[in-house]
Every structure is written in structure tokens, then in C-alpha cells.
Amino acid sequence: MSVVLAIITAAITAYVVLYYNVLRGSRCRSTVMLKGKTAVVTGANTGIGKATALDLARRGARVILACRNKEKAEAAVYDIRRESGNAAVLFMHLDLASLKSVRDFAETFLKTEPRLDLLINNAGLMLAGRTEDGFGMMFGVNHLGHFLLTLLLLDRLKASGQSRIVNVSSRLHQKGSVDFNTLSTHKDLVTGQSLWHCFMGYCHSKLCNVLFTRELANRLEGSSVTCYSLHPGVVATEIGRNISLWMRLPQLLCSKLFFLTPEGGAQTTLHCALQEGLEPLSGRYFTSCTLDEVSDMARDDGLAKKLWEVSERMCGLS
Prior knowledge:
The chain is built from eleven helices and eight strands. The chain is α/β, with parallel strands linked by helices and 318 residues long. It has one domain (1-315): Rossmann fold (3-Layer(aba) Sandwich), CATH 3.40.50.720. α7 (195-220) crosses α11. The longest helix is centred in the middle third of the chain and has 26 residues, at 195-220. Keywords: Membrane, Oxidoreductase, Transmembrane, Transmembrane helix.
């Protein structure tokens, strides 16, 4: 019995050490307060987005939860107001799977909000299917919707002084690619709807996030707006909630022991949004609150520029 107890004790000790030194992740160390500042966080009704919005609200920001599901978003608004003591937290409807909804959100925001200091493009999904406009769901939501949203709000960001755009990507961008022929013929970056296509579609969309950030930084050079992309870590969120239970079961089991909490997963987003002195690193990619390298394809300025031009046409901006 003593041997078994010793083994259990050693295992628990090892896990605690692993958790606090590796699994818990890095922390955003910025003490910046945001009184008088306005932030928009997409997909803020749950997971990393909600944790990000809560932290910004605690710092005194006016926080707008840009979400598709009204019921869940209003519940999140209630939670964040209660936990932060900040009443300036509100919901605005945004469905990134509809370019019309993106335009409607931007129109409402620009009519009602005089400033925008932080745009956190956080929402993301891993789901097959098509958007309202016929694009592949992950390409349309994870990239194209955020692309249009950012461009429609860019003048307000510029008018608000030192402002930042943060695009939540993933380390899986390293497995991604952009095939413009497939994009032209299928309005998507994959050709099928299988589980493998779904996984690769997610990787491709996350590469688009990094490429978008890179080209955006080039176009913003000399302005008061900077932008960053990031890998939040392996986080226990609801991103795979639309996948069948038997496919999610291994993730659910592992997530309880080894994945970051949403609050832990929000730290690199907060670092990119708040850390002083990051302006010279506009366009760069971060992991664990630290500057990190991207794949060779993600450093291709020609690819980034072409993706921008194609995205403009798909959004009806050119």
C-alpha cells in the first residue's frame, strides 16, 4: 500500500509541477488600465473571447461583445458586468458567416461608438459547410468575415490614436496553404467536407489570419494602428462543439488534464493588445506572450498581398 501511495503522490506532484511550469502557460504582465478606451471582441460569449473581454472590462474599457448568438452573448454580458463591476459591457449582433451582417455591425458601430482602440478578431470555428454567401464556412468565418470587419472599422481605429488589431490564429497555420485555383472554383480552400478536409480547412484559414496580419501591417506602416497575430496555446474551449461526441471524446478527456483554461488561453491575446512597446513588432506573430516564428509560407509577402486582393474582390470592396 505504501508503494502505491508513493507512486500516486509522485504522479500528483509531477502533474502539479508540469501544470504550473508548462501547462498553465505564460501570463500577460501589462498593468495598463483602459478607462476611456473601447474594445470590440468577436466571439466573446464563450472561451478565450469571453476571458479576454472580462480582462479588458476589469481594466475599465468599454467592451463590445460581437457575437452571433444573442442569448449566449447577453448571458456573457451579465457575467462580465457582475465579475468586473463594469457596466460598460454590451452586446452587438455579428454573424461572421454573413457579409451583410458584418456590414450591418460596422454601420451600427460607426453610428453609435465614437472611438475604437482595440479590435480583437477572436472568433473561430472548425466546421464544414457554407456561409450565407456560399464560401467555405471556415474560410468565410475565420478569415473573410474578420477581413471585411477590420477594413470597415479601420478609419475609426486610425482616428482613435494609438490603437491595435489582434488576430487570433493558431500554430496549425504551419500546416496550411493557400490554393487560389481551389479558392476560385470552390469559394473555399478545400475541395471536400470530410473530417480531413475540415481539419485542413482550419489550418488553411489560420494561415490566412497570419498572412492578413502581415499585409495589414505593411499597409498600416506610418499610421497610429498596429496589428499582431498569435497562437493562444492548446485551450479547452468549445471550438469543436459541432463535431460529433465520439470524435470530441479524446479531446474532452485530455482537456481536463493538459489544456489551458480559457483564461490561460487569453493571455497572449492580452499581451498583444496591451503590452507596452510592441509597436515596432507590428505584423508579427506571438506565442506564450513571446515573439515567435511563422512558417515559410506565412512570411511570403507576395502571397499575403494576393490573398488581400482576392479577399477584397470576394467582399465586394474592389
